[in-house]
Give the backbone structure.
Amino acid sequence: MHKKLGVSLTNSPGTSVCRNSIVQLTAFPKGGALKNYTYRWQLSGNATVIGNANQVSVAPYGTSRYVLTLNDGCTIASAIDSITVNVEFPDALFSNTYSSGTEYAFFTPDQSGYKRYFWRFGDGDTTGEVKPNHKYKRKGDYKVCLRVTTFNNCDREYCDTVKVYFNNGIQNAQVNNFV
């Protein structure tokens, strides 16, 4: 008697990847009568077939569920498994405020909960603090950048021009977004 046809997928039932990353999905068939396996990878909820081999590479833009149907050429029933690929796209936007009389700018990321924060203040100073304050020595325009890193090591950077006026405070100027 032959074993029942079955299949398992790498990282099933889910995995996380960084945006614009390629992830390799691998099927591990088991059992069946002939072991002459045929594979059909499909994007869930969509008729698009994305591959007919035991391994496919995909570059999901958003969270996607991939379904594999396995046949062995003899068994009446197919084996089906699926995997959900979550795409991480960290948010590095931030805001700043000014404390009158001290020339300190206080920077706050719009999102929290990342593994790492790295700030560049445009005057050569940097920090890894989550919500830093920074004192500028001269007035002028400074390109302030924040790079955040998730626990899956996905990262993103955002930069904004900050204008420093010692008598009038610090204010945000033109927004520049660098991905």
Observations:
- The radius of gyration is 25 Å.
- Residues 173-179 have pLDDT under 50 and may be disordered.
